[in-house]
């Protein structure tokens, strides 16, 4: 019965709020970026947008390990990906400035795509390796002074919650810039909005921020070791919560 009642709430409240808030905050971000620092604009538009939609769903988020973040340090953030609601968890609750690495198709999403472009997020064309590398290289100058970059190293959402194979882009990026990796585990979002469905439901999510991984002892030769170490930490978070 609760699920049946929630379906009405979803279509009457959650979906309209998501649509309207995306338009409003997207337009506001585009306007403010013309005369303000995108880093600041992201905090006053993207963060409230994410928190508002989390509250309306409602999705309660528990955060563990916030003490593992140094706000003055730039990181390559690597998070597992279970649901579109991971975006609300990370943007609303991580508490630091970062640039998303997102697929190029999202650029065409009304208001959201244009706002992300103005905020300096990074679009990559996964169908064209050269263009993808060019986008990543062009973004490197933005990742300084406490601004981080966020990758979903699985490359897509997991359908069963289990970690997929990691791609090497995030780890190459970290080595190129000499940045530590900040592993993040997200649990619970797949039960709020499963992959490839509109079967939204309220629920609880947990974000575990793990201690950063120093990349100074790694190079291109032992890159797989860095990938394995990061994956192991994120997977441990999933296992512990389970």
Describe, in short, the structure shown.
The protein is α/β, with parallel strands linked by helices and 242 residues long. The protein has helices at residues 2-32, 38-56, 86-93, 112-119, 129-139, 169-177, 223-241, and strands at residues 59-64, 76-79, 98-103, 122-124, 148-151, 181-187, 203-209.
- Gross morphology is globular
Distance between the termini: 27 Å
Spell the H/E element sequence.
HHEEHEHEHEHEEH
**Strand arrangement, largest sheet?**
1-7-6-2-5-3-4
- Rg is 18 Å
How does the major sheet shape up?
7 strands, mixed
Unreliable stretches (pLDDT < 50, length at least 5) are none
Class by SSE composition: alpha/beta
Secondary structure: helix percent:
40-55%
Number of helices: 7
Beta strand count: 7
Sequence-ordered SSE layout with sheet pairings:
Elements: H1 2-32, H2 38-56, E1 59-64, E2 76-79, H3 86-93, E3 98-103, H4 112-119, E4 122-124, H5 129-139, E5 148-151, H6 169-177, E6 181-187, E7 203-209, H7 223-241
Parallel strand pairs: 1-7, 2-5, 2-6, 3-4, 3-5
Antiparallel strand pairs: 6-7
């Amino acid at each position: 019965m609760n699920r049946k009642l929630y379906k009405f709430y979803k279509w009457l409240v959650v979906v309209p709020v998501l649509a309207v808030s995306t338009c409003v905050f997207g337009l506001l971000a585009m306007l403010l970026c013309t005369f303000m620092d995108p880093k600041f604009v992201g905090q006053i538009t993207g963060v409230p947008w994410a928190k508002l939609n989390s509250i309306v769903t409602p999705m309660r988020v528990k955060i563990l390990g916030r003490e593992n973040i140094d706000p003055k340090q730039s990181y390559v953030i690597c998070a597992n990906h279970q649901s579109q609601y991971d975006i609300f968890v990370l943007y609303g609750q991580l508490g630091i400035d970062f640039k998303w690495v997102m697929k190029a198709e999202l650029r065409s999403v009304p208001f959201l795509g244009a706002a992300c472009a103005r905020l300096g997020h990074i679009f990559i064309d996964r169908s064209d390796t050269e263009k993808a590398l060019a986008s990543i290289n062009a973004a490197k100058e933005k990742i300084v002074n406490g601004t981080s970059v966020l990758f979903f190293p699985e490359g897509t959402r997991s359908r069963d919650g289990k970690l997929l194979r990691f791609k090497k882009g995030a780890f190459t990026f970290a080595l190129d810039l000499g940045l530590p990796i900040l592993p993040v585990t997200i649990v619970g979002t797949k039960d709020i909005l499963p992959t490839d469905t509109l079967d939204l439901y309220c629920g609880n999510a947990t974000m575990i921020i793990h201690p950063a991984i120093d990349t100074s002892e790694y190079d291109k030769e032992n890159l797989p070791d860095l990938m394995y170490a990061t994956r192991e930490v994120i997977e441990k978070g999933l296992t512990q919560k389970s």
